[in-house]
Design brief:
49% helix, alpha/beta, 3 domains, Glucose Oxidase, domain 1, 579 residues, 24 helices, binds magnesium ion, globular, single chain, binds phosphoenolpyruvate, TIM Barrel, eight-stranded mixed beta sheet
Length: 579
């Protein structure tokens, strides 16, 4: 028995036989050509490109209607790459200039592009290196006259098997989609690789970045995949298989229970209604939110509209995005957070917030500070949000508030925008609710001062924990100190909830803590009214809410707050969770 570790990117347990796809990058030959054969070589290269375009076109035409939209968009990206001059023209120039063969010219170009991608700061853009590599491999295979046919025929035999590959291309994905694969394991890839995206949308367990998986595993070998923990067990013993079969059954049972409560009310056993909302980053994410019957959008991170592009979205583009969300959620509340740029959320658009904050970006000109510093960035967004408020239940939420002055300034700007829109005859909801994120300790400590002026609070624990404990949330070296149960964090959460209640405004939480089942009962006990989280966590949280007694939890939560030592505190939280 052998246990390998990788990155679990799609949860679930699979037990089955390995199907190892041996398809490493083709060997690239290098040779020089006599001058009279150069144009012929360029033609050979061009026809390999044409074949690749035709192959991808055919694959795109065969995408099943039920396939997730990500698949066709990935294939479209590959087609775009094939049309890019860097891929379809630059190698031809190299063949002409240096007289080398087409494969080598393509390799030179692809190495150069890979180096450029490697330097990129943005993880998303860096991941595009894989797409370029996959397109290059396809052209190479065409040049070397090897096709995908062999692989295309094998896929019928994959039912119930665990596919082990170096990496999977979107084309593989379309082909594999027709079969019932039990799980994927790849040598390469990360959480946002194609394998990960596909596996999650098809709900197939998957582990990526298991180094040398294709070398260490033989065809037909028994495997266990734990897609949540990223654990791969090769040739497991009987007792281990039995244990994982039991876990598999539990997961299936849990899934059934979760599906069953989708339409049930979100209320505790003693009848307290708790609002469960979804966090989204792009308008398309609403689909995932409605799939789990979210009661609204508790956090729409609008800054994603500003990323991966050279320009800034104007008021019209923002309005269209917000309108899409408001319409898609049909009448339920949408909490649009104003721009939270700066710090780890960098943008290309106008380079705002990047250059100005260099030394200590988490404490710098980010979020509402940046918006107030540069109102030409802020005003179009306020206009767009207000205009979208005419279409449904829109709420506006201000991130990173740390002083009352900032809050009043934003409230003034909103009022000014309303006057402007009225003058222009543009419709909006005059009673639009304005809430504040409580994510800076200063705001939590003085939440009672903010509460009378706002319509709701939403606690952003990701930042609140970072600032309270002085731990950079993106620094792996201090990750171990990141503790939502730190007494200081719990006190700030409790202070915020009490201040909200005293002022008669609802208090929500939209940081990761809200979607973590370990803390649900404690937060209920502290009096939280609304939880907003990644849609994938919502039904599990709902199950806990429906299984809780608020009166009991309130007493437990008080003991947790009064607890004088960490071990006792953790034991109390464990006991709450056992209840
Ligand atoms: C938070 O800080 O908890 C939060 C929800 O906002 P973000 O993660 O976008 O900073
Ligand atoms: Mg935050």
């Amino acid at each position: 028995m052998l246990v390998l570790h990788g990155t679990g990117v799609s949860s679930g347990i699979a037990i089955g036989k390995a199907y190892v796809l041996h398809r490493e990058r083709p060997e690239v030959p290098e040779y020089a050509l006599p001058a009279n054969l150069i144009e012929e070589e360029v033609e050979r290269f061009t026809s390999a490109i044409d074949s690749a375009r035709n192959q991808l076109g055919r694959i795109r035409d065969h995408i099943p209607k039920s396939a997730p939209p990500e698949i066709s968009s990935i294939i479209d990206t590959h087609l775009l790459i094939l049309h890019d001059k860097m891929i379809c023209e630059a190698p031809a120039d190299t063949i002409r200039k240096s007289g080398c063969n087409a494969e080598w010219a393509l390799k030179i170009q692809s190495d150069e592009l890979a180096a450029v991608f490697e330097q990129m700061d943005d993880a998303y853009l860096r991941s595009k290196k894989t797409d370029v590599g996959q397109v290059v491999d396809r052209i190479l295979r065409n040049l070397l006259m090897s096709t995908d046919e062999e692989h295309e025929q094998i896929t019928d035999a994959l039912d119930g098997q665990i596919v082990v590959a170096n990496d999977l291309t979107p084309a593989d994905i379309v082909l594999l989609k027709h079969t019932r694969i039990a799980a994927f394991v790849t040598n390469l890839g990360g959480p946002i690789s194609h394998t990960a995206i596909l596996a999650r949308s098809l709900e197939i367990p998957a582990i990526v970045a298991v180094h040398n998986a294709t070398r260490g595993i033989r065809n037909g070998e028994e495997l266990i995949v734990d897609g949540k923990l990223g654990v791969l067990i090769v040739a497991p013993e009987h007792a281990i298989i039995a244990e994982y079969q039991r876990r598999q059954k539990d997961i299936i049972q849990l899934k059934r229970e979760l599906t069953a409560i989708k339409v049930s009310r979100s209320e505790t056993r003693d009848g307290h209604a708790i609002t469960l909302c979804a966090n989204i980053e792009l308008p398309d994410d609403v689909k995932a939110a409605t799939k789990v019957a979210a009661q609204g959008i508790g956090l729409y991170r609008t800054e994603f509209l500003y990323m991966n592009r050279p320009d800034l979205p104007d008021e019209e583009e923002q309005y269209r995005a917000y309108a899409k969300v408001v319409k898609a959620i049909s009448g339920k509340p949408v909490t649009i957070r104003t721009l939270d740029l700066g710090n780890d959320k960098r943008v290309d658009g106008g380079n705002r917030g990047n250059d100005m904050v260099t030394v200590n970006p988490a404490l710098g000109l980010r979020a509402v500070r940046l918006c107030l510093h540069d109102t030409s960035l802020f005003r179009p967004q306020l206009r767009a949000i207000l205009r979208a408020s005419a279409l449904g239940q829109v709420r506006i939420m201000i991130p990173m508030l740390s002083s009352l002055g900032e809050m009043f300034r934003v409230l003034d700007l909103i009022e000014e925008t309303k006057v402007e829109l009225t003058r222009q005859g543009q419709p909006f909801n005059p009673a639009l609710q304005v809430g504040g994120m409580i994510e800076v300790p200063a705001a939590a400590v003085s939440a009672d001062l903010f509460a009378p002026h706002l319509d709701f609070f939403s606690i952003g624990t990701n930042d609140l924990i970072q600032y309270t404990l002085a731990i950079d949330r993106v620094d792996e070296a201090v990750n171990y100190l990141y503790d939502p149960l730190h007494p200081s964090v719990l006190r700030l959460i409790s202070t915020t909830i009490r201040a909200g209640k005293a002022a008669g405004i609802p208090v929500a939480m939209c940081g990761e803590m809200a979607g973590d089942t370990r803390y649900t009962r404690l937060l209920l006990g502290l009096g939280l009214d609304e939880f907003s989280m990644h849609p994938s966590a919502l039904l599990e949280i709902k199950r806990i809410v429906r299984d809780s007694n608020l009166a009991e939890l309130g007493q437990f939560a008080q003991s947790v707050l009064n607890s004088r030592d960490t071990t006792e505190l953790h034991a109390l939280v464990d006991r709450m969770n056992e209840h």
